[in-house]
């Protein structure tokens, strides 16, 4: 896996990252740091990448387990160290899984497997941050009745 990050050369702190798979993502800094707030901050990208990694795992595990899911959201809330390097010190993952007759045990298992075995990003973050999880299940069959 590889990527290239280039400063756009414009005034400010905007960077374009190109992934090895050919996708481009913009990043920018906060106005008080020379940025123009045109795109997510680099550390926000770390957080959203981690959310994508674990959501992918949870959906895949639930589907393979025969669960009928229609949606999966994960909200990440993070705290950072006050001094440099401002690493994440706490990250909370709150999953909302929607579908029909989803088993609580299946959701708990999927989250556990993601965070202990499959999600490389959250496993890396665990080296500096306290990781916690919560979840809720929305039963579509009840909601539509």
TrEMBL record:
PANTHER family: PROTEIN YHFA. It comes from Solimicrobium silvestre. This is Putative redox protein regulator of disulfide bond formation.
